[in-house]
Amino acid sequence: MISHNNTKTDATASDAPESAEDWRPVQAQGVIKRFRLGRRKEWNEVLHGVDFSADVGEFVSIVGPSGSGKSTLLYCLSGLESVDGGAVRLGGTDITRMSRQDVSVVRRDTAGFIFQDYNLIDSLTGRANIELSLRLCGHRAGQARRLAEDAMGRLGVGYLAGAYPSDMSGGERQRIAIARTLACSPGIVFADEPTGALDSKNADIVVGLLRQIAETGTTVVMVTHSLELAARTDRTVVLRDGRIVDSIAHAD
Ligand SMILES: Nc1ncnc2c1ncn2[C@@H]1O[C@H](COP(=O)(O)OP(=O)(O)OP(=O)(O)O)[C@@H](O)[C@H]1O
Description:
Residues 26-251 form the ABC transporter domain. This protein is α/β, with parallel strands linked by helices. It is built from eight helices and eleven strands. α4 (126-136) packs across α5, α5 crosses α6 (170-183) and α6 runs parallel beside α7. The radius of gyration is 18 Å and the shape is globular. The site of adenosine-5'-triphosphate (ATP) has 10 residues, from α2.
């Protein structure tokens, strides 16, 4: 059953986050994003004042036509892109006017990323890819190994510890990439078309894993082209021409 709810996202996001009750893991108000058109002095405004927020443990999907600004919104929410107007809070911290370096620290401590093309390092084994990420999160070598093995076990990819990405299927690579993201225990996971390169069976597995992650209290924000997969999230935000035009809550 699907129920339409146009007010939840916009109303919560436009309230100033002044009290603990207003706190959301990710919250954006009136986000404007422009890109320069080539070397010209003209600008292409891609996001025209987007309000967005997601709750603790909520699994939100962002859908919309190609070029509507889905990835740009995800990158602005996660601090990978700066914004030209409005405000973004990540893990309760206002990152809008922070230096890129400070934003990267907030991101490291708060968020994890999953990309369509996995972003694994080809010269490292599955386990070494995860361990490297854990070392970058500040874990010592022994602890990184234990946490990497634990994450691989949870995702059922322990058998890939010694395998290189080139020897893995697309689904296996994505599960290692998810294990890498989860190993650092982020409060928020941003996923940009995580199933875009997968067949339907593996896409199903990956969305099921993201669902499980959300059920443990991690907020998941996923861009997808698949309405079928979006329907398996808690809420779907529809973006068109850089504006949110609908927010659809999915009942169980
Ligand atoms: N770094 C950039 N520099 C210039 N323009 C950009 C940049 N990133 C995105 N754009 C432009 O912003 C618009 C929205 O792109 P975006 O990738 O966010 O859309 P999308 O909805 O995710 O599309 P798709 O579904 O095809 O991936 C497009 O016109 C794109 O060309």
